[in-house]
Amino acid sequence: MTLLVHDVTLTYPDGESRLTALDAVDLDVPAGTLTAVVGPSGSGKSSLLAVAATLVVPDSGRVVVAGQDTGGMSAAQKSALRREHIGIVFQQPNLLPSLTAAEQLQVMAHLSGRPSRQLRRRALELLDAVGLADKADKRPHQLSGGQRQRVNIARALMNEPAVLLVDEPTSALDHERGAAVLDLLVTLTRERSTATVLVTHDRAHLDRMDRTVVMTDGRLSDPVAAARV
Ligand SMILES: Nc1ncnc2c1ncn2[C@@H]1O[C@H](COP(=O)(O)OP(=O)(O)OP(=O)(O)O)[C@@H](O)[C@H]1O
Fold first, then answer.
1. Whose CA is nearest to atom 12 of ligand 1?
2. Is residue 65 in contact with ligand 1, taking CB distance under 6 Å?
3. How far is the CA of 18 from the centre of ligand 1 (A)?
4. Distances (CA, A) of 72 to 33, 49, 57, 64, 81
5. What pTM was estimated for this model as a whole?
6. Average pLDDT per block of 10 residues along the chain, 229 residues long
7. Which CATH entry fits the domain spanning 3-226: 2.130.10.10, 3.40.50.300, 3.40.50.2000, 2.60.40.10?
8. How far is the CA of 218 from the centre of ligand 1 (A)?
9. 15: which residues sit within 8 A by CB, 6+ positions away?
């Protein structure tokens, strides 16, 4: 499995006691597949992504990314793992205002220490893959919301991640642009063999997924049952 979350429990401080955000959660995501996570607000979906991204350390359980068990890794090791193997796409694109679309991608890869001469070429290839070949030199304020989200997705793919974690990528977009972004995620997952996890509230997305799991009060329901939801 490219992403394996095994028996993960996560609690947050809650006054005198603790709130259980994830309760013995298991999830495995093979390369080249998409898994949707649905469930009510506050059920633990973002917490699951944060744990899978190694941004939050669970109380117990294992998180294995691209064959590497993250338990016991130092902060620096996790940071390197994230740069090399994990792409993260949040709801709001969070692009740097002063950089062009191509530069947003190049900065990402520059941080990972890749040779700079190849970076622009790769950035342009990815912008082409997300349908923005002609926008490479535009800054965020010169792009539409859907175009910014596509830059965001291209940026997350810049370091060829094994795992792509996506939180509500279409919530700020109209139906047509949301559908285009989802098409793009499906295509890129297949072509680039990423293990993709998508948190979504949009039921229209679910028939495009390989699997749907349902989060309720920190517990993931049986995927077989969830597929029929
Ligand atoms: N940093 C935190 N400190 C304390 N409690 C938190 C923290 N982050 C989340 N929680 C709590 O953990 C539970 C799960 O939150 P989480 O954000 O994972 O849910 P979610 O399913 O992503 O919700 P939404 O769909 O509204 O984004 C909620 O009860 C929330 O209030």
1. 21
2. no
3. 13
4. 28, 19, 10, 12, 13
5. 0.89
6. 93 94 96 95 95 96 96 93 91 88 87 76 89 95 91 89 90 77 88 94 85 95 54
7. 3.40.50.300
8. 9
9. none
